[in-house]
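SAMPLE LOG
Freezer: B-3
Tube label: C17
Construct: single chain, 949 aa
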Amino acid sequence: MSRAIPQQTRASQLAASDPAKSAWVTAHAGSGKTYVLTQRVIRLLLADTPPSRILCLTFTKAAAANMAERVFARLRAWATMEASALDAELQAIAGAPPDAATRARARTLFARAIETPGGLKVQTIHAFCERLLHQFPFEANAPARFRVAEELQQHEMIAAATSDAFRLAAAEPEGALARAVARLADEMSREEVTKALREALARRDHVGALLTEFGDAVAMGRALAARLGLRPEETVAALERAILEDGLAGAGWRDVAARLQAGSPNDQRLAKRLSDAARQSDVAVRIAAYASVFFKDDGAPFKDAVTAGLKRSDPTLEALLVGERERVAPLLDRRKAALLVERTQALLALAQALLAAYAQRKARANLLDFPDLIGRAEAMLAHAPNAWVMYKLDQGVDHILVDEAQDTSPQQWSILLALAQEFFAGAGRASGPRTLFAVGDEKQSIFSFQGAAPRMFEETRVALMRRFAEQERGESFADVRLNLSFRSTRAILEAVDAVFDRPENRRAVTSDPAPPPHMSWKSELPGLVEIWPVIEPGEAAKPTDWSPRAAVAAGEGAPAVRLARRIAGRVAAFLAPDSPDRVHGEDGAPRRVRPGDVMILVRTRGAVFEATIREMKARGLPVAGADRIRLADHIAVLDLLAAGRAALLPPDDLTLACVLKSPLIGLDDDDLIALAPRRPGSLAEALAAAREPRRAQAAARLALWRADAARLAPFAFFARRLGEEGGRRAFLERLGPEAGDVIDEFMKLALEHEQTGAPSLQLFLDAVASGEIEIKREGEPAGLVRVMTAHAAKGLEAKIVILPETTGAPFSANHAPKLAELPRPDAPHGAPPFLVAVAKKNLNPPAATQAAEAVKAEAEDEQRRLLYVALTRAEEQLVVAGCKGKSKLPAGCWHELVSQALEADPALVEAPAPWGEGETILRRAVGAPPPARQRARPPCRRRRRRTGC
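STRUCTURE (predicted):
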């Protein structure tokens, strides 16, 4: 566009990129964070800073590659640019006309940047830490010539270490570890234990710090018990005895039950509960049944112990039951606390064994994983005797730049601030300025599962400002805010401001009590926000046909499928040759919508995600497909895993049946029906006896597989299936081009498996099946409609953004972590909080319930930040849609947040739905005349909510 950038924004950009000052840049979405970062690197080079003395750290490899490409593209262009054009660019970057020396230096920067030993360092924090540990392995206590574990290696080692820990427990049935496993098995399923152990592994530094402080899990358990107010003698067993054997114990239960039988049906139901409790032999079940006599499922006491009639006929019974309830209530709470202590002790004991086994396996393989890189680098830089390491590093870095600073974890901040420590040491060894630069937006911090701490962004900014002020160097620190969005139109940004002007939403995304509103550089361009009604389930017809075809037809009416059809229809209308819809090019001129202009963002890769891609492909629309695929879930990998298992275990009939129908063999249902029913032995035996040519050929092929499984490594085994036998071609013909990427990744993992230890087909199959390995599409698909998660869309943008999955709850109890942090008010400064293994709802003591609620609140806040990211990907048009099941919309879902924020906006009008059917949507158009058929909204808010608008 030809419109000039406001002078205030230009001044902010120049202040942020000034190579002589440190700077902290807080930026709205789309305000040019990467542009400012790139400009700062270029201005540092123009200021004659050696490229090797600039350290630029980004969050991902893709971001690092993108920024390096931007810098080198600019420098490459300068080398051959016309003098007048070069002068114009240099003046725009520095804010002043260039002199002859600057112009000459600019023409040589490209060659200098690529020829300098070490070159320009644009890398992730993990890559930097890896280089650091290789440079100082002894000081970092890192193995010499270590390698970073690949994803499959890590999954294999974790699985093996888990088996080691359980094997160690089984070796001593009466040992502490075996008791810990048995204790966890009393309350948790195998999947829950595995999830809890994975969480402990992800928080290994926290677990390790607690175990180091207390010595072992038992000692930590004693400290936790004291924190919860338990006396040493108040064990689970002692409290259970007090609940069951004191008070109304023994004959008292039977006597009270008999007296209750004389009352009303409600009293009789209470008598039955008490009698049922008396018959229970399992202590935990007996206590739960006894508690149900006095308390509701949510733990609240019943309003009346007995009915009014029984009060009159047996006046002492109510006092007896109330007294017992008051006696039991605190004992039940203290038992919950004691159970929490036991559960936490057991989990941490097992986690300690797992962490030790995992560390041993990494040491034997000379490997480190990503958390090791961060943890060891932080420990080395914080260790006083390694001051000379800091001296060596200080000789090589003059300028540190941090991209996406809101996603930086506390450990990573510790490393960065340690590197910059000498920058504040007064007169240092460098004659020129030494600077620290960070750019980010706490509203876009959505990676808490990777350790991101949004609070650290603001805390670090304040701490640095104070540090510069204390040294009377405040003028050398620029606190810059970028509020002008170069991405979104006014319609989009006004909607974003409306949503996050609400106090509960604003508190979730920023610590600033009065954040500046978003401003749009494209304020003159038209923009559009649409809110579609939520699709609700229709009446389910009783099934009359159980055939696969009937099952597919029954699923066609599912809300997710109906929503996917509406979205696919809307995208098809955007892309139709005669479509009236227009977006705007870089010059501001309207043009037709292209496939790459449309982005569909979901929260999860669930039913809506899959249905949308399926409907888009069914209509022949140019869609990119899934942006990320879990390897073990893809049908091609499932078929390959089944082929390996069928070769290793011929009697497995179900696996063999799957293989026979896969592209690797190519039989069909008729073949299976001819083979399977009334067979005298296994399916493999029936296949071997078959005479029909295709089935006989399948039997011969399976015999070859079994022979190969006994003598070939995994890579060679599958290479023969996919290459010589034509399996790859068959997969592509049946499943499409996407299968090729999946197969390539599968074969890459097979090769990595062989390179890291003794190859085993069985171990490889188990590692792939049990791992969380994902295929991620690198870069943006050119010229295709993109369907991806809001997390994956971070940093991307599109002319038109559709949000189809907006009705999910901001927090799901199924996804709640098993470990929560419990504060330690009396602990020494810097001591870590307790990690407690929380139970299901109503089974935790109050302190643990508060810890779990804090986790829930943080998750809900992050979902609001994720909504901010999703909304601000849109440039010109935004569609908010959704579907739901039979339950009501959950409070705090995205659809509700957007609808409630805009409902009072007079510019939001009712308009005919694009799919027809007599339905309407809500539309807010800014900067353009409204569509011809739209009309004013019904004034009744209640009516609109009933219709789902």
